[in-house]
Write a structure and sequence with these properties.
heterodimer; A: about 270 residues; alpha+beta; Thrombin, subunit H; 6-stranded antiparallel barrel; 12 strands; about 30% helix; B: about 170 residues; mainly alpha; Arp2/3 complex 21 kDa subunit ARPC3; 6 helices; globular
Chain lengths: ~270, ~170
């Protein structure tokens, strides 16, 4: 017994080192696995609060681009409104497809990273505003990411510039779909993988979100086709997609709260159980 | 004794604040960013409590991870650097380092420079390896380590000179 205590006292630094190394390695490995969200995130009182303060100052530096974006979006919405035959008529639900009802939460990016392989964005709204894991985040130009962790007032978002992110996307003109990932190289481009070679694709085609995921509604803009490769040894294309969004300069964002999300998830869960 | 503790706590908070507010927003060419917060580990008194250094380095790294959303990579790199610091001292200053009172924040000698160099490169290579976590990015990891290390060393030396206490 005495010897055990002596051993512990003699090697206390080494044991302490191994313990803390074990904890930090466990946190690292846990954060790299796809299906679990991380333990340590910036969605908390301390870092969220600090980032919000810093953002209050930084906001003023890019007011001009934010204003330009808002004016453009207003113009687009106005043109939609004026080109409707009758503005007082209530839009009828499409009887075949059905309109998917969705709520929008307005939020603001208070911290944005884009220089690592796994990038996260911190937003200044959390569970109090109704944010939950796996909600889609967009802005007027296109998609931004998927909500990962939420606290009471803040939440973190897996950016599309994150190698763990997989989003269902498709060609706007046809229904060929693929999976949107990021190769970790350039902040202006993401990759659309697993598009069958049967699809006719040309440079400049628009890529939008597909209807297969419960995260995003169908048809939200992502970007345009820049380069097309064939994945070696397969019959699938890999497409470089040039994003509409400048991911290094984000301001206000919209979080999509899909209303039949719960129902869809429960249905899929039931089918998996059986 | 007490004032040394206070100085350490002060350094811990100030270096973290500078790192988060200023240096985390710096990226040259999209991937080169300095991490001068590890000056805390470099400047920790030589003959002070070693377990205190390991624990505080872990907390330092964990706070950085919280702000950077990076899992545990900063904590891992900081703990390893803190544990191997005496060996780097031996490498840079020779075996009898414990008997001299080494003050790093004085004029820059080759020994001091080599100590900072080895510490920064060790920290950065662990950091970027765990960040990439895949072998196919090995070239990327080495490139980032090289450029970020140069950048961190320059910033660190500037900070050391700025906070150098005045001699009477």
């Amino acid at each position: 017994m005495q010897q055990i205590f002596n051993f512990i006292i003699r090697n206390s630094n080494r044991l302490l080192f191994l313990l803390l190394l074990g904890i930090s390695l466990a946190l690292t490995i846990q954060s790299h696995s796809y299906h679990r969200s991380r333990v340590i995130s910036s969605a908390n009182f301390l870092s969220g609060g600090v980032y919000e303060r810093i953002n209050r100052v930084n906001e003023y530096l890019n007011l001009r681009t934010q204003n330009d974006e808002l004016v453009l979006e207003n113009a687009r919405l106005k043109s939609l409104l004026f080109n409707k035959e009758d503005t007082t008529k209530i839009p009828l639900a499409d009887s075949i497809k059905g309109v998917k009802p969705a709520d929008i939460i307005v939020s603001k990016v208070i911290h944005n990273s884009y220089n690592t392989h796994e990038n996260y964005i911190t937003l200044n709204s959390g569970a109090k505003e109704g944010m939950k894991q796996d909600m889609g985040v967009i802005n007027s130009l296109g998609i931004i990411g998927v909500v990962d962790n939420t606290s009471k007032n803040y939440s973190t978002v897996v950016s599309i510039l994150n190698m763990k992110s997989h989003i269902n996307a498709k060609l706007k003109k046809s229904n060929h779909f693929g999976s949107l990932t990021w190769s970790g190289k350039s902040t202006g481009f993401v990759q659309l993988e697993d598009v069958p070679r049967l699809a006719s694709i040309r440079k400049g085609d628009t890529i939008v979100t597909g209807g297969q995921s419960v995260i995003f509604p169908e048809g939200i803009n992502i970007g345009t086709v820049e380069k097309i490769y064939v994945k070696t040894g397969t019959s699938y294309y890999v497409i470089d997609v040039k994003l509409f969004n400048d991911m290094t300069n984000l301001g206000h964002v919209y979080v999509i709260k899909s209303k039949d999300r719960e129902e869809l998830i429960n249905l899929e869960k039931k089918e998996n159980d059986e | 004794m007490n004032s040394a503790l206070l100085v350490n706590i002060f350094r811990f908070i100030v270096l973290l604040a500078i790192q988060i507010v200023i240096f985390n927003n710096m990226n040259f060419l999209g991937y080169i960013s300095p991490f001068p917060y590890l000056l805390y580990i470099i400047l920790y008194p030589v003959n002070s409590n070693r377990s205190g250094l390991i624990i505080s380095s872990f907390l330092l790294g964990l706070t950085m991870d919280m702000f950077c959303n990076s899992g545990g990579i900063h904590a891992t790199a900081c703990v390893i650097l803190a544990y191997y610091r005496p060996y780097i001292f031996k490498f840079s200053f020779g075996l009898s380092y414990e008997y001299q009172t080494i003050k790093l924040n004085e004029s820059l000698t080759p020994e001091r420079f080599s100590f900072i160099l080895v510490s920064v490169i060790l920290h950065h290579i662990i950091l970027f390896t765990f960040e990439a976590f895949q072998f196919k990015f090995i070239g990327d990891v080495l490139l980032r380590t090289l450029f970020s290390s140069i950048f961190t060393i320059i910033v660190s030396i500037i900070i050391i000179y700025l906070i150098k206490p005045n001699k009477r």
